[in-house]
Design a protein that fits this description.
The complex is a heterodimer of chains A (148) and B (73).
Chain A (H helix, E strand, L loop, with lengths): L2 H30 L4 H26 L10 H33 L9 H27 L7
Helix pairs in contact in A: 1-2, 1-4, 3-4
Chain B lengths: L1 E7 L1 H7 L5 H8 L3 H8 L7 H11 L3 H4 E7 L1
Antiparallel strand pairs in B: 1-2
Classes of the chains: A mainly alpha (148), B alpha+beta (73).
């Protein structure tokens, strides 16, 4: 699997993997009022996210004999830029989350503690999305595949 | 405004070297085919070590593969 394909997988598989447990947990938290829901949501996200990030390493472990180059300096550069862009987006997201909450609730208002892990999950989803998109945009800027 | 451009002769050199494919060049230079495609199209400027590896693959000096143009407008 090339890095470009990995970026697509990250975007279309990674996001639902993070979103689905989060949505389920949000549903439980707000509709059923279970107190362990935020913890469950956080744990689920970490486990699923961790498993997703482990996949490439597991894949490489079983393909040790192959000498196919999958990752080179250009991929490294693209990955580095994508992470940088997603970090900036994440920073803006957290700033926006804090300011918007303050604007909506007001200085004397209060919010549920469930908002905190939800914000974290939202940040993870956003980071993953932006990283995938940034990588795809950068790969798209390159030459068309198949040109000999 | 200065416009820097790195031109290359990879495509010509590949055909001069027994119609070497991008895949073969990529394997010899230790990169992916997509990187060779990007370099050939002038979309990606390779690092110095990679530029040397590509030149060495063709058995020519680096200046025969890459040419730096600085067009001041």
């Amino acid at each position: 699997m090339t890095k470009k394909e990995e970026a697509w997988v990250g975007l279309f598989l990674g996001v639902p993997i993070l979103v689905i447990p989060s949505v389920v947990a949000v549903f439980i938290a707000y509709d059923k009022g279970l107190s362990f829901a935020p913890l469950l949501m956080f744990t689920g996200t970490v486990i699923w996210g961790g498993l997703l990030w482990l996949l490439p390493y597991i894949q490489r472990k079983f393909r040790k004999d192959e000498k196919v180059i999958m990752f080179d300096e250009r991929d490294q550069l693209i990955h580095k830029r994508a992470v940088m862009v997603s970090y900036v987006a994440l920073w803006f997201y957290f700033v926006a989350a804090c300011v918007i909450t303050w604007c909506i609730v007001g200085p004397n208002g209060s919010i549920s503690v469930n908002v905190m892990p939800l914000t974290l999950v939202g940040g993870l989803v956003l980071f993953n999305c932006v990283q995938g998109l940034a990588a795809l945009i950068q790969y798209g800027r390159g030459a068309k595949d198949g040109a000999k | 405004m200065a416009q820097n451009e790195l031109k290359n002769q990879i495509r010509r050199l590949r055909f001069e070297n027994g119609e070497m494919t991008q895949e073969q060049l990529a394997d010899k230079a230790g990169v992916t085919r997509q990187t060779i495609i990007a370099i050939e199209a002038g979309k990606y400027a390779p690092s110095l070590p990679l530029a040397f590896r590509i030149a060495r693959t063709f058995g020519v000096p680096i200046e025969r593969v890459f040419e730096y143009e600085n067009n001041e407008t």
